[in-house]
Automatic annotation (TrEMBL):
Source species of the chain: Sphaerotilus microaerophilus
Keyword hit for Protease: yes
Annotated Peptidase U32 collagenase domain residues: 396-513
MF terms (GO), sorted A to Z: peptidase activity
This protein's name: Protease
The entry's keywords: Hydrolase, Protease
A biological process term (GO) from this entry: proteolysis
């Protein structure tokens, strides 16, 4: 990818969703392979990925496969074999976290640094560029000046940034709560999402400062208003989160950001799209219609007061209207002005008196007064089951069946610009020549033998030539111009014209595929550059001997094992985050600065989080303005892991991973 190109990077849970992402304007798609992707339930067979590759390359869009978990030693060889299969399937790049992969015999496939590599500094980014990464996704917590500082140091790699979707509250790759409490490792693609749970927060004196609040749950990322600023800061790949999301989400969000980037490209002629073709849609994109927890642009423009989705981690939906009447069988609602009509099987939400979000799926909805926009709604469940639903309750709609049906159909058309020129063939025996040139300048010429027969009606003959040569409906092309430079508009049978057009299009398809260059693997700097630090803690996620060898080769002297190796058994930071609960609850000492009667009385003392039997401690590092969620691994998790190791050993398939200490015994 060239530095003047902007890339829209869309997610795909499946090959079919990836195909629709391409159809709706994605310059690139990232998708999980059959194993080792950081979304455990979003894997795809290599054959399906090959099908997606074939479709994407028609538009010079690229396919990236996520192989971004940390790997045990016994998983490295299966991973290496899979990478070769993906390369043979035509995949353009791998998104990886585990540095052990760089020590293997890999094909010349481009490598991208996953968000799990936690890139927050120019030094880290420069190191990853120098060891062979061609593209890297920066930490979502960065501000525009911090992004610009990285861009100034990284000239040989493309910088990627998440612009939409769910936000991990932790620095990516720096969250171990799931593994500590359940044995499910976020760094191995199986996060239990403890951050979305409700917690009671108490201070050092035991006073409750928040009761049953989702204080670690964030709103969703939305950088729609910041794309130009991100371009100026050095971002060139704009990534939509969502490899677990459905088809409608990917269609809608891809179309939304495609439109915004196209508008930006029109204003900035020095920039260009990273793939070919323009899209048209049967719907108007609207990101608010998809699952979201409210929106924030997070830290791009500095720390903000309102980034949390503390009331609920669920999707409330779009504003709908007010309840006017409740009966034992149904209720009535007046829709707000401009709200589309209700449908059977829509889903509504409201907040009960405890501010818990309640879902209310509709069985039937009937318009009873068009002038007042008054509807009678019979819900799926008995009215008595809907707690606190009463007159003057405000409703939202989080599923609109009319919208869903619209996106269930074909909803986009992507076409590559095409210029055709009909001329007399240089060799008179060939008759006519048709030259086809696409928007990227790929050009082919097809010929067909035919007699040069003068027409009886020149205007009608020319119209016939244009009609049959312009029939491109079953192709990926949109005719921009057709020039006829023959001596005169010859009379040519329709069958001959159709054969000529098909020959030119087939030749152009082949030439375009041949012109698609798979991006090259970047060569690492020699001799090996030094890693920015000479020691690594469990936070570096070193889980195999090859990863340990990689860091040693780059000058690291002390290399601790990954948290999943079960050597950090005491109280440690299970999550490091830029989100600050004290700040969100207006308990930050910096907020109290200068406030008479308050300044000096508010201190960044630890807080305690409790959810059921789970207890965590919040500690605050005010200099970098970071929060650490501190806890320890459950004994049950450790014992279960040891039993699994012993069972595999007994079965003759030992589990092998990097350790710095002797193997412990099961309790």
């Amino acid at each position: 990818m060239f530095r003047h190109q902007l890339e829209l990077l869309s997610p795909a849970r499946s090959a079919d969703i990836g195909i629709e992402a391409v159809n709706h304007g994605a310059d690139a798609v990232y998708i999980g392979g059959p194993d080792f992707g950081a979304r455990a339930n979003a894997g795809n067979a290599v054959a399906d990925i090959a099908r997606l590759v074939a479709h994407a390359h028609r538009f010079h869009s690229r396919i990236f496969v996520t192989l971004n978990t940390i790997l045990r030693d016994d998983e490295l060889e299966p991973a290496r074999k899979l990478i070769w299969q993906l390369y043979d399937a035509g995949v353009d790049a791998l998104i990886v976290q585990d540095m052990g992969l760089l020590e293997l015999d890999l094909p010349p496939i481009q490598l991208h640094a996953s968000t799990q590599t936690d890139i927050r500094t120019p030094e880290k980014a420069r190191f990853l560029q120098d060891v062979g990464f061609s593209q890297m996704v920066l930490a979502r917590e960065l501000t525009l000046p911090q992004i610009r500082a990285i861009a100034d140091q990284v000239q040989g790699a493309t910088l990627e940034f998440f612009v939409h979707g769910a936000l991990c509250v932790a620095y990516s790759g720096q969250c171990y709560i799931s593994h500590a409490h359940t044995g499910r490792s976020a760094n191995r693609g199986d996060c239990s999402q403890a951050c979305r749970l409700p917690y009671t927060v108490s201070d050092s004196l035991g006073r409750i400062v928040a009761h049953e609040q989702h204080v670690l749950s964030l709103k969703d990322n939305n950088q729609s208003a910041n794309l130009a600023a991100l371009v100026d800061a050095g971002i060139r790949s704009f990534k939509i989160e969502g490899r677990y999301k459905d088809m409608g989400y990917v269609k809608n969000l891809t179309a939304h950001y495609r439109g915004l980037l196209d508008d930006l490209l029109e204003q900035r002629p020095e920039l260009a799209r990273a793939s070919a073709g323009r899209c048209s849609y049967t719907f108007t994109p609207d990101p608010d219609r998809n699952f979201n927890r409210g929106s924030t642009d997070y830290f791009v423009n500095g720390r903000l007061d309102d980034i949390g989705a503390f009331d609920s981690p669920k999707h409330a939906g779009l504003p709908l209207g007010w309840v006017t009447k409740v009966t034992p069988e149904h209720f009535e609602v007046v829709l707000d002005e401009g709200v589309a009509e209700l449908n059977n099987n829509d889903a509504l939400t409201y907040y009960d008196l405890q501010k818990e979000l309640v879902g209310l799926p509709i069985n039937t909805a009937t318009l009873i007064d068009a002038g007042r926009r008054l509807w009678r709604v019979v819900p799926k469940e008995a009215m008595a089951s809907y707690k606190d639903l009463r007159r003057d309750t405000y409703l939202h709609r989080n599923r609109d069946m009319a919208w869903d049906r619209l996106l269930d159909k074909k909803s986009a058309d992507r076409r590559v610009g095409l210029w055709l020129q009909l001329s007399d063939a240089a060799d008179s025996a060939d008759g006519l020549a048709l030259t086809a040139t696409d928007e990227a300048g790929v050009e082919v010429t097809a010929t067909v033998p035919c007699a040069h027969e003068a027409p009886k009606d020149r205007a009608r003959a020319e119209a016939t030539l244009r009609e049959h040569l312009g029939k491109l409906g079953g192709t990926v092309y949109a005719l921009e111009d057709l020039s006829i430079t023959t001596a005169q508009p010859w009379f040519v049978p329709a069958s001959t014209l159709n054969a000529l057009r098909r020959g030119a299009i087939d030749a152009l398809d082949a030439a375009r595929l041949a012109a698609h260059e798979r991006p090259a693997r970047a060569a690492p700097v020699e001799p090996p550059v030094l890693y920015p630090d000479d020691s690594l803690s469990y936070l570096a996620n070193v889980y195999n001997q090859k990863a340990r060898d990689f860091y040693a080769r780059h000058g690291v002297k002390v290399i601790a094992a990954a948290y999943e190796s079960h050597e950090a058994l005491g109280e440690v930071s299970l999550m490091i985050t830029k989100h600050c609960v004290r700040y969100s609850l207006s308990l930050c000492p910096k907020q109290a600065k200068g406030v008479t009667g308050v300044q000096g009385t508010v201190k960044a003392e630890p807080l305690t989080l409790v959810n059921g039997s789970e207890k965590l401690t919040l500690r605050f590092d005010c200099k970098p303005c970071e929060m650490h969620v501190v806890g320890r691994m459950k004994k049950s998790v450790l014992n279960q892991s040891q039993r699994e190791e012993q069972a595999r050993l007994a079965a003759g398939v030992p589990m092998q991973f990097y350790r710095t200490r002797p193997v412990p015994r099961a309790a």
